[in-house]
Amino acid sequence: MSLLNNLLQGRFEDAWVVLERFLINTTLGVYGFGDAATTAFDIHPRPADFGQTLGVYGFGAGIYFFWPVIGPSNIRDSLGAVADLSVHPTNFLDWEISERAGYYMGNKINSMSLNPSVYEDVKKFSLDPYVATRQAYSEYRHDQIDKQKR
Amino acid sequence: MMITHEKKIEKGMKAIQLTCMFVWVVFCFVALAVPVLAAKGPTETIKPVLEDLTKLLNNLELQGNVHRDERRQKIMNTIKAGFDFQEMCKRVLGRTWLEINQSEKEHFTELMTKLLENAYIGKLEDYHYKKMEYVEEKVQDDRAQVTTLVEKDDVKLPVHYIFQLTPRGWMVYDINIEGVSLVRNYMEQFRSILRTDSFAGLVKIIEEKNKTFEKSGKD
Q1: Are B166 and B83 in contact (CB under 8 A)?
Q2: Rounded to an integer, what is the distance from CA A72 to the centroid of its chain?
Q3: What's the pTM?
Q4: Which of A67, B36, B196, B205 has a 20 to 30 A CA-CA distance from A56?
Q5: How far is CA A95 from the centre of its chain?
Q6: Shortest Cα distance from A135 to chain B (angstroms)?
Q7: Average pLDDT estimate for B164-183
């Protein structure tokens, strides 16, 4: 997904890094479960998603909402996530839709469990956690898209 | 040809005029140049503040719960040397700032400073970064931005300090990390509260929040 979106955004150098990481990790990193590319070769990930690609092409964010489990998003990024799912590597495996959905959700829950203090910190630092999260998400995504346009 | 008496006076007057003009030009140059030469730039202003802050956070004699109050007092005094909390509050409140009186402004600034202290000092104390680089300074009229790179766990995080030129020199009023502005975030939260509640209601919410922090600190 990152490779495709880096190419769509014209980030050819980042696309090469993504390809390089994929090749190293599938050979040395036990088919993607380890991250040999970062630990051994200091090639850090260059994330990109379709929501970001849409933003680079001028699509507005649309209304904000907070998906259960998945977290903050907006119309553009949600549509982008659907597009990302359609090119997710699990689509090329012989899995049922329920298995793919379980894998994707499991990934999301796993990434949240690595940062359990984030939600507690937002509640602690803010007077209105919903507005604080909405504003932070909106500005962060805007900054990510702006960086790619430069 | 002998110069007449009148012409001597005229020549004398012109000499005095030229001397006065020269003295006036030198005076203006000195009067304008001295403050310009003396005023520190934004990076020169924030650097010693951040260096002092780092020393305080790494000072072994101030670590632990026993020295908590003394440590936090010193941290806040250091931060106040470079941060303009009143300007921060003015921007966070927006139009409401113009509608409140001086006493309310002072009280709100005190509450907001306490809120930020309660919310972020603990995080600051836990955050041990490897090093900080000063990578860029942008100045436009009376606004400036200094970009630093903070390295922690092999990740470099850009932190932008936003300044305004005040009679006290360049003072920070906002911090921006990965595009997220501290001032804009609180501004949106307060706007949301002020839509359904008055300024007095907002003040009460902040007071309650500060009490919650104090209670959890004592527990």
Answers
A1: no
A2: 12
A3: 0.70
A4: A67
A5: 22
A6: 6
A7: 93
